[in-house]
Design brief:
- This protein is an alpha+beta fold and about 725 residues long.
- It has three domains: about 140 residues, Aldehyde oxidase/xanthine dehydrogenase, molybdopterin binding domain (Aldehyde Oxidoreductase, domain 4), CATH 3.30.365; about 160 residues, Aldehyde Oxidoreductase, domain 4 (2-Layer Sandwich), CATH 3.30.365; about 270 residues, Aldehyde Oxidoreductase, domain 4 (2-Layer Sandwich), CATH 3.30.365.10.
- A hairpin with a 2-residue loop joins strand 12 and strand 13.
- Helix 2 runs parallel beside helix 3 and helix 11 crosses helix 12.
- It is globular.
Length: about 725
């Protein structure tokens, strides 16, 4: 069981499945669906193994009272880990039900067949059903990790197109988001924010309470909020309080060159061997080998990036009779419950978190902070349900961002065009500040409001991630290519100006950008086609297959050079452990240096394909997010606070620059499913960078690649 994480805490079938007397099958996974269709894929696995129709399966939302604790929905782990758990639990359940049926029908188990939960004996034609055998009773058995599940040749539902769970409500408008919830006596709440992280409340005009009418003011140290029965009145009351507050700035935000800070600030530096950072001295940076005939060296820079959730975060909290219930769109109800309980001085058993639909983000946006905000107001106003919504300005200015990064890469070729030396160094603040319980209040220290309450906790000081391969800063820094002489170093940099946390792909995005840009440059230096150069340096047949598949569909070997038009290639295996993805992008750069995306081809190998449409959706969405980061996005600030507080000051990719996208899935039904949620993002960004190079001859090194950046590169 130790090899299947979910079964360590939750070893029983009843933790994952139940069958009701109405014939409904319920899957409980602890994972949340934020648009990636994990609910559909996991329900398909259960339906297949149980031999029930997909429409009979329900997916239970994450709830700390009823769901298994599988941590966060993150790191592309849902299918790779929880999918296998659901498969084993379902296969164990079916075997158990067949044994019960054989006893009840007094036949040999080998004579039984199952059609949509109906168990019939071929010998006697007598039958029963799963729900007649079990009803609402528990299975009362452990998941057998050695149970024999179906062979791919027996599948009837896995891989087939289905109506995805929960999508009908999104289409017809019936889905109720956390933001839409209502209860008797509901209060609407808003937080009054300081100008930036370091400002603290120094004066609040006492007369303001008389100007708030029926709105209620909540104050805890520098944390200020208002609540009212009418939402519009709460908004206006928040404006009135904001006008009556004076903040002591203490110090402003640091505004010097953030990339220079990354290289000059105190840091923890660790070498990376076989994908893992180790606590050893960093080996010296030696000059290129004496037999190198060509050495290339580049420095790539990525700014702070927002999650850019289209809807701001929200939460509903009710504190009553010593129990706190929170409805939230967090990606981890169990770890957030533990953290909130500690922050609020409560027992975890007295706190319940229920997941509800909300703005997804593929990372750590404002959802967890909004949950704490709502809880603080609810505890101050017991017995009243409190629906607290962040504003667009709140989300843009206060969510934890994806860190800015610097990546340095150097490579040398010998006379035969072979890579004989490879150096890669990644500099970044932490990518891992999701609220997780730990010693010294480390969980509460990761939440925004804990900086402002009267019992404030100093901000979290991260340590390098050593427990997982290719985690955080050095994710995908170790190339899959067959370079024998490599030096890879991660640098966790201290004292950076902005609050950061998990954003899709973590450090993998810019690490792959640096690697794949260098691969194109090395191919040019060796006078070899970029595709052929990659194939020459890969011995992983699955990697080679996705490259060949993308190249064939995109017509790579048949392409002709057209002025101002470029075709670029990017490849990576996400985290070197999960889905393989190759991406080819075609684009144009016009006379004003604007980039127009025309076509993209994605080829991916995610092992066994369970929900092809959902997998394609993930890969295509990853490409679009990568394009947005590459061409548009950058957090800006001055000493007074964040200045990119709306969609004009923080532009994102829009419909007028969405390319035609084709996706090829290399299905391997005989192999386990691999995590795919982040697989296409980094190769897509690299493909865009290489396509711009192909179109213009310019190698850009600092994101985003705006028209101003392209013109500046042309003039340099």
């Amino acid at each position: 069981m130790a090899s299947i994480p979910g079964l360590i805490k939750h070893p029983n079938v009843d933790d994952w499945l139940s069958i009701g007397p109405d014939g409904r099958v319920t899957v409980r996974s602890g994972k949340v669906d934020i648009g990636q269709r994990v609910s559909t894929a996991l329900a398909l696995i259960a339906a297949e193994e149980l031999d029930v129709e997909f429409h009979r399966v329900d997916f239970a939302g994450a709830d700390t009272d009823t769901s298994p604790d599988v941590g966060y929905t993150s790191a592309s782990n849902s299918m790779q880990e929880t999918g296998e758990t659901i498969r084993l639990a379902s296969a164990t359940a079916k075997r158990h039900l067949l044994r019960l049926a054989a006893e009840m029908l007094e036949v040999e188990p080998s004579s039984l067949e199952v059609i949509d939960g109906l168990i019939r004996s071929r010998a006697t034609n007598r039958s029963t059903t799963y729900w007649e055998l079990l009803g609402d009773k528990p299975f009362g058995i452990a998941v057998d990790v050695d149970v024999v599940s179906k062979a791919p040749g027996e599948y009837r539902q896995i891989g087939q197109r289905v109506v995805p769970l929960g999508f009908e409500g999104l289409v017809d408008g019936s889905t109720r988001f956390v933001h839409d919830m209502t209860m008797p006596g509901l209060l609407h709440a808003r937080v009054i924010r300081p100008p930036h992280y370091h400002a603290r409340l120094c004066h609040l005009d006492d007369a303001i309470r008389d100007r708030l009418g029926n709105a209620r003011l909540v104050r805890d140290g520098s944390f200020l909020a208002v609540a009212a029965e009418d939402e519009y009145f709460a908004i206006k009351a928040a404006d009135r309080v904001a006008s009556a507050v004076r903040w002591a700035p203490e110090r402003g935000l640091a505004c010097d060159d953030v990339y220079e800070r990354l290289l000059a600030n105190p840091r923890v530096s660790l070498p990376v061997y076989n994908g893992e950072a180790v606590e050893e001295p960093v080996p010296p940076r030696l000059p290129p080998p004496s037999d190198a005939v060509k050495t290339l060296e580049f420095r790539f820079k990525r700014p702070y990036l927002m999650h850019g959730s289209i809807g701001p975060s929200a939460a509903l909290a009710l504190y009553k009779d010593g129990t706190l219930t929170i409805w939230t769109h967090t990606q981890g109800v169990h770890p957030l419950r533990e953290t909130l309980a500690e922050a609020l001085g409560m027992e975890a058993a007295s706190v319940r978190l229920i997941h509800g639909p909300g703005p997804g983000c593929y990372g750590h946006n404002g959802a967890d902070d909004a949950a704490l905000d709502a809880a603080l107001v609810a505890k101050a106003l017991p017995g009243n349900p409190v629906l607290l919504k962040w504003t667009r300005e709140d989300e843009h200015a206060w969510e934890p961002y994806g860190p800015c990064m610097v990546v340095e890469v150097r490579a040398s070729l010998d006379r035969d065009g072979q890579v004989i030396d490879w150096l890669h160094e990644s500099y970044s603040d932490t990518h891992r500040t999701r609220p997780r319980p730990g010693p010294n209040r480390v969980g509460p220290a990761r939440l925004l409001a804990m900086r402002h309450v009267s019992s404030a906790v100093p901000p979290f000081v991260p340590e390098p991630a050593l427990s997982a391969p290719l985690a955080g800063i050095h994710r995908n820094a170790d190339p899959l290519y067959t370079f024998s002489n490599r030096r890879i170093v991660k640098h966790l940099v201290r004292n950076m100006p902005l609050r950061t946390s998990t954003l899709r792909t973590l450090g993998g995005y810019v690490n792959v950008l640096a690697i794949e840009s260098m691969m194109d440059e090395l191919a040019s230096a060796a006078d070899v086609d970029p595709l052929e150069f990659r194939l020459r340096n890969l011995d992983d047949e699955r990697a080679r297959a996705v490259l060949e598949a993308a190249a064939e569909r995109a017509g790579w070997r048949r392409r002709r050079k057209v002025p101002g038009r470029g075709q670029g290639l990017g490849f990576a295996r996400y985290n070197n452990l999960k889905t393989y993805a190759a991406v080819i992008v075609e684009l144009e750069v016009d006379d004003a240096a604007a980039v127009h995306l025309r076509r993209a081809v994605i080829a991916a190998d995610a092992g066994q394909v369970v929900d092809a449409a959902g997998l394609s959706l993930q890969l295509e969405g990853g490409l679009l997010q990568a394009a947005s980061w590459m061409l548009y996005e950058e957090v800006t600030w001055d000493e007074r606070g964040i200045t990119s507080r709306d969609w004009d000051s923080y532009p994102i990719l829009r419909f007028d620059n969405v390319p035609e996208v084709e996706t090829i899935l290399v299905d391997r039904p005989e192999l386990p499913s691999l995590g795919a949620g982040e697989a296409s993002v980094a190769p897509s960004g690299a493909a865009i960078a290489n396509a711009i190079f192909d179109a213009t001859g310019l190698r850009l090194h600092q994101l985003p690649f705006t028209p101003d950046a392209i013109r500046a590169a042309a003039l340099d």
